[in-house]
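Class prep. Protein, please:
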Amino acid sequence: MALFSVRTLGFPEIRQDGRLCPLGLRKGMALLVYLAETKGTVGRDAVATMLWPDGSEEEVRTRLRRLLHRLQLTLGDHV
């Protein structure tokens, strides 16, 4: 199982097993930092609304699904 670490001081960065993971996704980084800092579970609707507050319900769900897929492609199936 991969070990992930999130650095939030200064420019945020994600490391997997000590190696820097160049994300290139601002919303993806925001999502990972938010999830790392949050205690407990977070619903998809709450996350989607936080990232895209002006979008329709269908639009933000689609965007979140795409973002999660891109994060999975970048970081692997462990995420």
Summary: Residues 58 and 71 are 20 Å apart (CA to CA). Helices lie at 26-37, 44-51, 57-75. The chain has one domain: 24-79. The chain has three helices and three strands.
